[in-house]
Amino acid sequence: MTETPNEIHVARNHKDRLFRMIFREKKELLSLYNAVNGTSYTNAEELEIVTLENAIYMNMKNDLAFIMDSYLNLYEHQSTYSPNMPLRDLFYIAKELQGQVDHRDLYRNTLIKIPTPRFLVFYNGSEEQAEKKYLRLSDAFQKSMDDPDLELVVTMLNINLGKNKKLLEQCQTLKEYAIYVKKVRTYAKNMKNVEEAVDKAVTECIHEGILREFLLRNRKEAVEMSIFEYDEEAVFEIVRKDEYEKGLQEGLEKGIEQGIEKGIEEGREEGFSAGKADAILELLEDIGTIPEEIRERIHNEKDSKVLNGWLKQAAKAESIDEFVSKM
Questions:
Q1: 129: region left, alpha or beta (phi > 0 left; psi from -120 to 50 alpha)
Q2: ∠ at Cα 47 (41, 52), nearest 5°?
Q3: What is residue 293's three-state secondary structure?
Q4: Tens of pLDDT along 38-74?
């Protein structure tokens, strides 16, 4: 894909996100920036796109990076809450600044000035979250400090319909995006076929003038992205539910023999693994026939980190062979 002056370049070897696709146009991104910061800039050309040419780093994709008024803004969209965004943004900003600063200048005796970083997450997951939340890198430190030598703060804004009403009113496109997501979730919950639910939401939004021009231009891509994002949310919901139910059940059983406290903890850990394995297999069954040895390997894996990696790969894989090659 060739970068144009009005669009942010994004790597296409990952499934794209609807939020990123909508706001990669400078005009829409400037509107979002103004709403967040209470500014009223009108010239979108003053906004400098600095998203990394290869936006994929450590299997994570940077959504929107741009400089405006000497601020370096890193915007991320999340449909699943993650307390690890400060650490991810630390990786992003380091990579970003490496591309902007000549390493030879680091050894000079004059101070190198850099744009002031700002980190925002736009959250619209189904899990209840506060309207605004501050995520701090220091929360992850094994030893807490009152004044840590290294800190990075991410502001998480809840953009679900009904949350941050003032923000949504100040950015019409963001408000329409929230309405669209709400429709997709409502219809997907009430209809058996997710594809039909998404298509109904798209058709209704076009008729009602919600993201109308965008959806008319990009209907096929919008439908595909929405189906993928809803399925991904459903996977995490399945895992959370299975983790709780299976962990509780096995924990209670072990508690009878070994003591309630220890038993619940061990049972919960086994339940976590079983729930993730089931979710991985459900995803893979949608794209092909799972070889028996692969099925057994997934069922027998107990390492949570390995299962997390496989779950992400299964959500992105286009075929069984692709998944197996990355195990």
A1: beta
A2: 150
A3: helix
A4: 999 999 999 999 887 554 444 455 789 999 999 999 9
